[in-house]
Amino acid sequence: MEYEAVIGLEVHIQLLTKTKIFCGCSTDFGAPPNTHVCPVCMGMPGVLPVLNKKVVEYAIKLGLALNCRINKFSRFARKNYFYPDLPKGYQISQYELPILEGGAVEIFINGGYKKIALERIHMEEDAGKTVHKPDGSYVDFNRAGVPLLEIVSKPVMHSPEEAGEYLKSLRRIVRYLGICDGNMEEGSLRCDANVSVRIKGEDKLGTKTELKNMNSFKHVEKALEYEIERQIDVLKEGGKVIQQTRLWDEKSGITKPMRSKEESFEYRYFPDPDLVPLIIDDKWIDDVRKTLPELPKEKLERFIEEYGIKPEDARVLVEERELAEYFERAAKESKEPQSVANWILSELLGYLNRDGKEIKDTLIKPEQIGKLVELVEKGIISGKIAKTVFKEMYNSGDDPEKIVKEKGLIQITDRGEIEKLVEEVLESNPKAVEQYKAGKKNTIGFFVGQIMKKTKGKANPKIVNELLVKKLEEK
Ligand SMILES: [Zn+2]
Question: Lowest CB count within 10 Å: 1, 122, 249, 420, which one?
């Protein structure tokens, strides 16, 4: 019997607003505990929440980017539960009337695009943080009231890879929009997964489990792989999957039960009487629409079309908005966009990865990459020398022309000069010449090496090869 997995994801993104969702406290990460708090986010009696307009703006932005239906009338609701890091005893969220419904996240998988349909997206406040130490447990309320969007997909994914691509695609979009930094390790993008299995071809969904505690893309995929296999094994042995919440244990690589359905919370949702319903008009939506940047997929298609670069290269370049913009500035400076892409993808990203840096940290201005490519294209320096120049550019941020001039790296293209060198090398290596004449054509590599050694790599390799073959045939 063949089984099929059914996966739905719930993703929480922390919004990059300066202040919290219902008060003026800062949202900065990493401040000393309980320094970004006030009576509102501490849940003191008698205070009233005031909605942060920016949160709504960001939600509309995401709704437009994912083609969601934007509800002009939505409402906040109280989600009641007790936990030490929840000062009010309830979390302000949205329930029966969320701000966004429908829409989809497009993913690229197996060489094609696939739309992963969304159920809804709603606004809510984050809870605080409990820290357990040997001498006791502590609560930090800095995070209490930080704005979140919860993005709920429909259960339409069928493999851990699809789920992974969905997350990457969603992360890319929220980062392009500038509404979330997408940092999973710091918890600004969190993911829970609902997963079940069924016999392939059946319509009815199997019993699902909810997976929590996965703080990287890799863990999400690994946890799903494990859980799908576990559920299939249970069914194969004639057992039943129990509906429960399971925690991913990174160290042992397995999921462990946390609580079952019987213990699950009854949240007693009801409309929050302290907040009026949220009304959004067309003008507001239009104003936000004007601020939308070019999104990753549109950028990808434009890069392929406008610059004629390889699709697989374009895909890497649009991964981060900064990198895409960097490429575009460099490409405009050169007639060879593909070469520009090659330099950025192999050399620049190689160096940055080695140093644990990001594109914004590099000393090389994009225009300088374009100039370097032009130096090679015009034959002023060889491709090999260009690598030396690039290294220097990376370390100093200097212009390629300046480096070439100062270090005397200009390529030797004078045929007479190269011819003389060729003759010298052939004369001082009679044995190798004999071998060449005897049919060992690859001896030519040895001669090229000798000439490059004499010129410190500056001789134009095309002319060197051409003249070598000519002189050897003459002998
Ligand atoms: Zn506050």
Answer: 1
321/386 same-domain check:
yes
Tell me, what's the pLDDT at 149?
Answer: 98
* Sequence-distant (≥ 6) Cβ neighbours of residue 335 within 8 angstroms: 374, 377
Degrees, nearest 5: CA angle 187-264-269 = 80
Residue 317: what pLDDT? Answer: 97
What total of structural domains would you count in the chain?
3
In this prediction the pTM is 0.86
Structural domain boundaries enclosing 428: 415-474
Residue 262, pLDDT above cutoff 60: no
Regarding whether 353 and 268 lie in a shared domain, the answer is no
CATH number of the domain bearing residue 420: 1.10.10.410
pLDDT for 92 equals: 98
Distance, CA 366 to ligand 1 centroid (Å)?
Answer: 42
Span 307-328, mean pLDDT? 96
Instruction: Please choose, from the candidates 217, 199, 262, 18, the residue with its C-alpha nearest in 3D space to the C-alpha of residue 107.
Output: 217
- How far is ligand 1, taken at its centre, from the CA of residue 19, in Å? 8
My answer on whether 36 and 99 are in the same domain is yes
Query: Cα 208–13–251 angle (5° rounding)?
Result: 60
Same structural domain, 306 and 376: yes
Cα–ligand 1 centroid distance for 11 (angstroms): 24
Ligand 1 centre and the CA of 26: distance in Å?
A: 8
CA of 44 to the centre of ligand 1 (A): 10
* CA distances, 349 to each of 308, 355, 359, 375, 387 (Å): 21, 10, 8, 21, 14
The rounded Å distance from CA 159 to ligand 1 centre is 41
Looking from the CA of 436 toward its CB, the CA atoms found within 13 Å total 20
Q: Which helix (H) or strand (E) holds 414?
A: none
Ligand 1 centroid – CA 75 distance (Å) = 21
253 plus 387 within the same structural domain: no
Which of 370, 387, 406 is the last residue before a domain boundary? 406
* Residues 58 and 192 both lie in one domain: yes
Residues 184, 131 share a domain:
yes
Q: How far, in Å, from the CA of 71 to the mean position of ligand 1?
A: 28
Q: How far, in Å, CA of 184 to CA of 175, rounded?
A: 12
Q: Write down the pLDDT at residue 263.
A: 58
